[in-house]
Amino acid sequence: MGTPAGNMAYEVTDKKGERKTNTIGYRILGLILVILLAHNLAIAAYRGAMSTGWRGTDESQYYRAAKRLAVRQPLYSTTPTHLADTFVYPPYMAFIFRPMLSLGKFGSYRLWLGTIITLLMASCVITALYFAETQTAIWLLIPLFFVTGFRCWPSVIEFALGNVQMVLLFLTCLMCITAAKGRWKTFILLLAAAAMVKTWMVGFVMVPLFAKQYRMAIYAMVITMLLLCAAFFIVGWQQFPRFIETMRMYSVQPDLIALSASGIARQFFSTNKIIHPIFVSIIARIAVTAAFYCWIGFLAFKIMSHAWAGKLQSEQSRVLLVPFCAACALVTLPLCHVIYFILLLPGIWAMFAMALHAHTRTRDTIILVSTATACYLILAFPTPTTTPVPIWAQTGWARLLTALPLLAAVLCATTLAWLITQNNA
């Protein structure tokens, strides 16, 4: 009774004789492909995290802080008896985990793991939807972002530890879009929320400064301070000095590998517990650190000079300011672990997406794709960037592998600065 399959293979044309495309069919199949890919990647990430010996190491800090909050014990301790008792965040993470206590330690970790996996997928989707100029680009970018997001060494470590970098990634992607659209009131709320997760995110106040939104930068600082005051009003002001002291104590952790400019210089040119130094020299350590800092300062000054000249008016320039600040933060922070490099993903995604834009020249397309691919491959490679560093990577040429994420951050920041100052229309 039905139409034979062979009779279905015919061309449909419109009145002008042009071939029609079954758009609905393509969209449905594309959606099914994305769902299947997301499902497989999410399941693999969940199983991988559950099978590792690091399972929930960082999540335990939030869980134990919530337990102390529930019984009105101090959140912060300058002499913790257990690693999981170390809590260096504003109180909001304890507030978030307070309702999870009824699930138990294992149950809260599974819920948190599912949450950060979901946040990664949401970050991929909203970024792809913003950057895509066509329907075809959407179905190309979302799978590409899924693969680069999940098949990434910092993401693998993040899922195992249960840290908060995926929360910051999601907020960073939202900040990219709000900055691009000029929705600065929403932007500063997102920035303040990010700073309540990790205080160093307050450095993203440079974005409205670059965009000559000086009043919004002040508002961002005020809202951040108000949120911090509100948190300590709830837990007790007597805990604020302990919070400050805890942050000071753990701002540099000599027993853990640090991948920022100052951290790599310390490990390469001074005696340490991480790797064998190339040689011990305080001059070399200062010189290498200063060289990276000067380069980042030069890039920031170049962008600021364009802003002062009124040349950062395009949406395409503003959207790149947030990924640029993220890359600069990874280079300049005194303490930077491998999971922090998740924040390079928005910059990598932006470069991949802009390579598809119709107005991008062939030369620029090659540069963008090459840079994004190089940065991603560095992050995808399981570099010896966790503590303890494997013995084979503590000496010889192999120890240079610990500096690869830093080089990826510098390359990303440089390319984004070039894009920002180029897109000044």
Summarize this structure as a short list of keywords or feature phrases:
0% strand; disordered N terminus; globular; 63% helix; mainly alpha
Word description of this protein:
- The structure is a single chain.
- The chain has 425 residues and is mainly α.
- It has 18 helices and no strands.
- It has helices at residues 23-51, 59-70, 92-97, 104-131, 135-150, 153-161, 165-181, 184-197, 206-210, 214-235, 240-250, 261-269, 282-308, 315-318, 321-332, 345-354, 362-380, 404-422.
- It is globular.
- The N and C termini lie far apart (61 Å).
- The model is unreliable at 1-12 (pLDDT under 50).
List the topology elements.
Elements: H1 23-51, H2 59-70, H3 92-97, H4 104-131, H5 135-150, H6 153-161, H7 165-181, H8 184-197, H9 206-210, H10 214-235, H11 240-250, H12 261-269, H13 282-308, H14 315-318, H15 321-332, H16 345-354, H17 362-380, H18 404-422
Helix pairs in contact: 1-4, 1-5, 1-6, 4-5, 4-7, 5-16, 7-8, 7-15, 8-10, 12-13, 13-18, 15-16, 15-18, 16-17, 17-18
